[in-house]
Amino acid sequence: MTTSTTLLILVAMAYLWYAVGRSRSVAVVGGRSKAAELHSLPAYYGWLCAVWCLVPAVLVMLLWKIIDDGLLLKWVLSAMPEPFHSYTGTERELLINDLTNVSLGHAKVASPEVLAAAHHWQALKQLSSEWLAAAALTIGAVGGAVSFWRIQKTLRARPEIERLVNLALILCSMVAIITTVGIILSVLLEALNFFSRISPFGFLFGTHWTPQASESAGAFGAVPLFAGTLLIALIAMVISVPVGLMAAIYLSEYASRRVRSIVKPILELLAGIPTVVYGFFAALTIGPLLRSVFESMGVEMASESALAAGLVMGIMIIPFISSISDDMINAVPQSLRDGSLALGATRSETIKRVILRAALPGIAGGVLLGVSRAIGETMIVVMAAGLNANMTFNPLQAVTTVTVQIVTLLVGDQEFNSPKTLAAFALGLVLFVATLLLNILALYIVRKYREQYD
Predict the structure, then answer these.
(1) pLDDT at residue 88 is higher than 70
(2) Which of the listed residues 155, 185, 202 is the one where a domain comes to its end?
(3) Which residue has the higher pLDDT, 47 or 450?
């Protein structure tokens, strides 16, 4: 029996226990006319039976699936002939890959030992699936039956259900925390491994970036990457912040309802365009156009440049800033507008001195979201700005960014424990710290100005 079939049967069983539990709660007090004598509504007794039928069985299935494959594979490998027991590292991985392909039917040709082991593994998987289905259905039936026999007039079903729901909500909220902690630890530990080989001072303040598998052969100065990232992000924000903010002001304060209903969806369509399309646009249209313009003025420009990447990235970020700013401006109370106009201020003065100041926390959040998007963008930079780590602030030259180098370092067949690969985690740690500082700045701005306008 497959896992999906078992889950469907469990859901049907839970629904059945819900109906039976609800009916029993009514029967315990002698009918629906006396349902008020129950501690909780009849539905809570049904939910109690359904929850104790479904949740323990699903948890057992989840735990079983986590440990099942590893245990069965270990069992199969231990049952193979003696020469296979000495396999380690790459040989062991290749053997497991062959067993997987044969058991899934992707490979028909293999050694007799591998074929026998794969068939044994497949048989064990089938047996494990049957035992899992039997265990889950038994647990579901027992859980529902125990809850069914617990039902009586004084059973506090509603508080028990609420405690279970509260526990589920806590577990769901913990997912984000655990994920964040896991990300931080995974990046931090590998970054510390990198800094144990490469000087942190040389990494943060060095001006030459030529990473190699050996720490003695390569240069790991990341300043050119930081400079390229900041240059492209600055160009993007110079384009996106004024245009996005002005578009939001026009749509919120000046545009008619008909114009707004047409322009706003068109503007927000830019947010749905994949970044690879922006990359093609930058590489095939904007880059050659800018180069021809500057060359006509006698200014030399590289075929891949920070200006082309930053310009297209700014266009990509406009919808984010515009949409958030528009929502924040619309959220400003009408009383502030009316009060300013009543004191003799013009519409433009009201927008500049009242509305924008009141909406500043939200606008700042939108701008910082755009900055984060610009810092984390990869595809546009790869296609329009290049991969060369040049230490320059000239927007007409080719540069690269931190995210592009992370992708470059992690692609290929180099050893994972080499400084070249570990450098990606050090760069990721720097990005994490930079994003954290941006969030702290955003919180400071929001709290400062929210207190003035609450």
Answers:
(1) no
(2) 155
(3) 47
Which residues, other chains included, contact 448 with Cβ-Cβ below 8 Å and sequence gap of 6+? none
Distance CA 1, CA 372 (A): 48
* Residue 167 counted as domain residue: no
423/420 Cα distance (integer angstroms)? 5
The position carrying tokens 């925390």 is: 177
| Residues 256, 263: Cα–Cα separation, whole Å | 10
**Shared domain check, 244 and 366:** yes
Both 141 and 232 in one domain: the answer is no
| Domain enclosing residue 100, as ranges | 3-155
With bands split at pLDDT 50, 70 and 90, how would you rate the model's confidence at 420?
confident
* Averaged confidence pLDDT in the chain: 82
How far is it, in rounded angstroms, from Cα 399 to Cα 24?
73
Domain count for the chain, please give it.
Answer: 2
Query: How many angstroms separate the CA atoms of 126 and 111, rounded?
Result: 23
Distance between CA atoms of residues 400 and 377, nearest Å: 11
Contact 355, 254 (CB under 8 A): no
pLDDT digits (tens, 9 = 90+) for 102-136: 666 665 656 676 677 777 777 777 788 888 888 88
* 264 and 384 housed in the same domain: yes
- Whether 161 is in a domain gets the answer no
Contact 252, 326 (CB under 8 A): yes
On whether both 10 and 140 belong to a single domain, the answer is yes
CA dist 210 and 259 (Å) reads 52
**Residues 318, 448 share a domain:** yes
325 in the same domain as 413: yes
Distances, alpha carbon 217 to alpha carbons 200, 211, 420, in Å: 17, 8, 10
In this structure, of 134-138, 141-145, 209-213, the range with the lowest mean pLDDT score is: 209-213
On whether both 19 and 114 belong to a single domain, the answer is yes
189 falls within a domain: no
Nearest Cα neighbor of 150 from 51, 13, 58 is: 51
The predicted structure's pLDDT at residue 349: 87
Structure confidence by residue, pLDDT tens digits, 211-231 = 876 666 667 888 888 888 899
> What phi and psi, each to the nearest 5 degrees, are found at residue 219?
-120, 130
Whole-number Å distance between alpha carbons of 244 and 322: 4
At residue 94, the pLDDT reads 72
Q: Residue 404 is part of a domain; what is its CATH number? A: 1.10.3720.10
